[in-house]
Amino acid sequence: MPGRTDAVDTVLRAGLIAAPATFALQGALHLANLGLDRRVSLLDADSDFSAFAWTSSATTAAAAFAALLLAALLWRRSLVLLGLVLAFFSLDDIVALHERVGTLDEQLDLPEKLQLQRLVWVIVFMPLLAFAAVLLWRFAAEAGGRTGDTVRAGLVLLVAAVAFEAATPVLFHFDWGQNSIPYETEVVFEEGCEVAGWILVASGLGAFVCAVAERRRL
């Protein structure tokens, strides 16, 4: 990795503080909203139209921008692809394309009770998800040091979020639907892992941008 600078350390430190803080705040506000019978829709972490969904989308967009900026600085095709894939994920958070893909369970005549659309979209998106994971892992290996570790930690959290989402049909099988303790616990951890993961990925990419920029000034 290019030489460490104060800017690099600042970006990494900000990400390492913001990720767990956002995880905790999001979970606390979601649980508090449950106590209010979900009256504040913007605080419902299970909604695609909440403040939390916007936070995740904005952070993903920041990661995409950093990747594309690195692609322009380093002339790397892999970084262009990474930036475009992350930009797509950010857009998906807004338009909820994965939710529409999930309705394929109706065409497949799958049991509605199990909410298998949550598994269907993961299966359909799996090639793209795996491609993004490989690109991020390779970037982390190249970046090395704390920057690489930060990106890898973010990627692990994102994988965990997808795993939580794919496992929700098990909860519905046992009739643990919305407002049950197991389901809402899953929501807290799934959505928390997602937003914290994107924060770490974005901070890792942003730190590398700072390092490259500093190297170009030498």
Task: Please explain how this structure is put together.
The protein is built from 8 helices and no strands. With 218 residues, it is mostly helical. The protein has one domain (6-217). The longest helix has 37 residues, at 181-217. The two termini are 15 Å apart.
List the helices and strands in order: HHHHHHHH
What class, by secondary structure content?
mainly alpha
Assembly state (oligomeric): single chain
Low-confidence stretches: none
Helix segment tally: 8
Largest sheet: none
Overall shape: globular
Q: What share of residues are in beta strands?
A: under 5%
Q: How many DSSP-defined strands?
A: 0
Helix coverage percent: over 70%
Terminal CA distance reads 15 Å
Question: Secondary-structure map with pairings?
Answer:
Blueprint: H1 6-35, H2 51-74, H3 77-95, H4 97-102, H5 104-107, H6 117-143, H7 145-173, H8 181-217
Helix pairs in contact: 1-8, 2-3, 2-8, 3-6, 6-7, 7-8
Give me a quick take on this structure.
With 218 residues, the chain is mostly helical. 81% of the residues lie in helices and 0% in strands. The mean pLDDT is 85.
